[in-house]
Design a protein that fits this description.
This protein is of the alpha/beta class and 448 residues long. It folds into 2 domains: 3-349, Tandem AAA-ATPase domain (Rossmann fold), CATH 3.40.50; 364-408. It is 47% helix and 8% strand. A 7-stranded parallel β-sheet has the order 5-6-4-7-8-3-9, with helices on both faces. Strands 1-2 form a two-stranded antiparallel sheet. Helix 12 (258-264) links the parallel strand 7 (241-247) and strand 8 (268-274). The longest helix is centred in the first third of the chain and has 17 residues, at 35-51. The relative contact order is 0.10. Residues 7-29 have a biased composition (Basic and acidic residues). This is Helicase ATP-binding domain-containing protein. GO terms for molecular function: ATP binding; ATP hydrolysis activity; DNA binding; helicase activity; histone binding.
């Protein structure tokens, strides 16, 4: 194996003492990767992704009843890609919760004593799953439906590491820019013991925030956006993070993008993805997420594309039994690393939903803009033509009027606290009289 692949194996199993064979067939111990080795080989890691071994693909595209000769090709000692993926998937499958309530699922993880507030039963089960995956040195995807509290479960996980293991970070949480402040507020509400660094601002402000952040316990959790991690990539690479958490993980669905590369080369002991839509339309996007979690397992995307996405008509041309077998093998590998609950599963634990519809009248300016836009000749002609996209555009303009009139007809923003300079004209004699200073004249007369 090349050096980049070896580093990834070390990253995934820092506590294990398994024997790994190199090209010279000399066993060497696998320990936590050093910072120097990590920095030297981070660039080689992404290059090895496309040309690396197709670890994991033989398990997907071969049947369980294949002859023993194919197993012999994996190695004389019986240790090969198929066995590794089978072992990892089986280990993750055994950790999946069996129910949605504490009565049906076995939960061993207590709620952190510093966590303010109470977790619902399914959230407590999700916390137990996250903690167990962490103990087994496995990364995963928390894919609960929107509104079920993925943020709270993530905070509870970091709180458990701090309270029960003394692991206070630092952790890196990468989120969309629009929810950065929301994550900060949730951390302060649920676990105020954490020191939160919200990393944003212009380059000068971000540089000031980075001053002293290498000191121990300078902060516990850093919250930033995808864009800033890309811009300040070198600074984040130099930091050793305990947990790398990505919210809205579909943002890294393109493994060829700079955004994906910048996140995958950030050093972290563990990784967690949060998303509400894990099953992407493109299987290559799904592979990107799994490769981010387990780069030493899902290395080659070429055979993944050939068997599952090249194109989807390949499955259509095959028999129904063949297609079902491919899907089963795919799910057999991916499902154990993903926990997804929908509202229908836990609806008994959700509070009752109340829906109130408040109808508001248009203001005078809104009514004027609305009627003026509808009375224009171009608007009437567009509506008469019946062209779908043109009618949709008219509806979008009317929605702007209803939301706020300045969205449709912008006005200059003025403040009552800012006044403009007063300009005036006057005669030269009057100006001389106004500028006359008798004290200056009297002082000049006293001079010898």
């Amino acid at each position: 194996e090349d050096v980049g692949e070896e580093v990834e194996v070390k990253e995934m199993e820092p506590k294990s003492q398994k024997e790994v064979k190199n090209d010279d067939n000399k066993p060497e111990s696998v320990d936590s990767p050093t910072v120097s080795n990590r920095d030297e080989n981070e660039d080689q890691e992404m290059e090895g992704d496309e040309e690396g071994s197709d670890l994991g693909m033989k398990f997907l595209v071969t049947d369980d009843k294949e002859p023993q000769s194919q197993a012999a090709e994996e190695g004389a000692d019986g240790v090969g890609p198929k066995k590794e993926i089978t072992d990892i998937a089986a280990a993750a499958e055994s950790l999946q919760p069996k129910g949605y309530t504490l009565a049906t699922a076995q939960v061993k993880t207590p709620v952190p004593f510093l966590l303010r507030g109470s977790l619902r039963e399914y959230q407590h089960i999700g916390l137990d799953w996250l903690v167990t995956m962490n103990e087994k040195m496995l990364n995963g995807i928390l894919a609960d439906e929107m509104g079920l509290g993925k943020t709270i479960q993530t905070i509870a996980l970091l709180g458990h590491l701090a309270c029960d293991r003394g692991n206070w970070g630092p952790h890196l949480v990468v989120v969309p820019t629009s929810v950065m402040l929301n994550w900060e507020m949730e951390f302060k509400r649920w676990f105020p013991a954490f020191k939160i660094l919200t990393y944003y601002g212009v380059p000068k402000e971000r540089k000031q925030k980075r001053q002293g952040w290498t000191r121990p316990n300078a902060f516990h959790v850093c919250i930033t956006s995808y864009k800033l991690v890309l811009q300040d990539h070198q600074a984040f690479r130099r930091k050793k993070w305990k947990y790398l958490i990505l919210d809205e993980a579909q943002n890294i669905k393109n493994f060829k993008s700079q955004r994906y590369t910048s996140k995958s080369t950030v050093y972290s002991q563990h990784r967690l993805l949060l998303t509400g839509t894990p099953l992407q339309n493109s299987l290559m996007e799904l592979w990107s997420l799994m490769h981010f979690l387990m780069p030493h397992v899902f290395q080659s995307h070429r055979e993944f594309r050939e068997w599952f996405s090249n194109p989807l008509t390949g499955m259509i041309e095959g028999s129904q039994e063949y297609n079902e077998s491919l899907v089963k093998r795919l799910h057999k590998v991916l499902r154990p690393f993903l926990l997804r609950r929908i509202k229908m599963d836990v609806e008994k634990q959700m509070p009752k939903k109340y829906e109130h519809i408040v109808r508001c009248r248009l203001s005078k300016r809104q009514r004027y803009l609305y009627d003026d836009f509808m009375s224009q000749a171009t608007t009437r002609e567009t509506l008469a033509s019946g062209h779908f996209m043109s009618v949709i555009n008219i509806l979008m303009q009317l929605r702007k009027v209803c939301n706020h009139p300045n969205l449709f007809d912008p006005r200059p923003i003025t403040s009552p606290f800012i006044t403009q300079g007063i300009c005036y004209t006057t005669a030269s004699l009057v100006l001389t009289a106004l500028e006359y200073d008798p004290w200056r004249v009297s002082a000049a007369c006293k001079l010898p």
